[in-house]
Amino acid sequence: MNEFDNAVKKITDLFYSAARKSGELLENTKTSYNISVEKDKIGKLQSQIGQKFWQIYKDGGEVPDFILSDLEAIKLISENIEALEKNLSENRLFKVCLACGAKLELESVYCPKCGERQAKPDDGGQAE
Fold first, then answer.
1. Is the same domain home to 74 and 124?
2. Do both 59 and 114 map to the same domain?
3. In 59-118, where does DSSP find H-type helix?
4. Structural domain boundaries enclosing 103
5. In this structure, what is the dihedral angle of CA atoms 105, 107, 110, 112, given to the nearest 10 degrees?
6. 30 and 73: one domain?
7. Are 120 and 105 in contact (CB under 8 A)?
8. How many angstroms separate the CA atoms of 117 and 101, rounded?
9. How far apart are alpha carbons 53 and 27 in whole angstroms?
């Protein structure tokens, strides 16, 4: 074999080696993705199981003792969230619809009660 043939053979071998490794990498990526999809399915099912136990607990039903403390913790956290949301809504600034007097959020463009277009804060109180 001459040097040209040797170079062509080396290049061809490198090409096939790279193609094989690319194929292996692609297969590994697909497999990793499929594993991730399956793990997500398990996570969703576990979440659904937990939500079912939570609903039973909220409805006053019997739940296994081994999850009772977790459900009680969720109840306390839920109550805390409700208190924080109530506090947030009480502290939120509102405006009043000039047409019907309904309480509106500041960014409201139309009144959900009467449909009247609301004035923008920078237009001097005049609705378009």
1. no
2. no
3. 65-91
4. 93-128
5. -30
6. yes
7. no
8. 13
9. 39
